[in-house]
Design a protein that fits this description.
This protein is of the alpha+beta class and about 230 residues long. It is about 65% helix and about 10% strand. The chain has four helices and six strands, in the order H-E-E-E-E-H-H-H-E-E. This is Secreted protein.
Amino acid sequence: MPVKTFHPSLSGLLAAGLLLPALAAAQDKAAANKKLYCWNENGQRKCADSLPPEAMAAAREEISISSGMRTGEVQRALTDEERAAQAEEETRRRMESLAAETRRRTDQAMLTSFQTEDELRRVFAERVNLVDNSINTSRYNVSSLREGLVTLLRTAGERELAGKPIPEKLATDIRTRHTQLRYNTALQASFERQRAELDVEIDDILRRYRELRASDAPGTRAGIDLPPAPRQ
């Protein structure tokens, strides 16, 4: 039986000749895009071409394997406490924005918009309630954080008295709780200061309002006395 010999066609050879450079270019591109991830773990720097699950929340650098240059950086994931602090900071900024908007509205409106003091006081009700709620929340947070810190310190003290080492996690929790307590204490003081300043601001605007109403009373305009009406 005769043996068949395979003869590649010209079109096949051309296709293979075109395909090989394309495959080589794709491989070069994939190699150029490969990254090296570097992060700190227990005080040691580690690097790998793939990120293990335990390092997903860690801060890390991304380095190009082909060039050795740093191509990116990822911040570590926020803890629950840090997310709470971030939310409190956003609340503080919203309060400041609301205060500025209320001042602008008050300056523009005043006499033309409010017929009585009660109407004017209602403009400040939202700010007063917001600041009061923030003060109560910050007081609760400070009290809770202080109690938690006392508990952690007591645990650390008992271990020292027993001659046992203090675990790193316990020491970290103490430092973190102390930082949070200082931040929330300062935040509480800021809210209480805002509340006192708000009282002064309200009293000042009410005083100005009364003066404007008095100058706009019948018989006067802009502080100038008008002549009495002629007798009938």
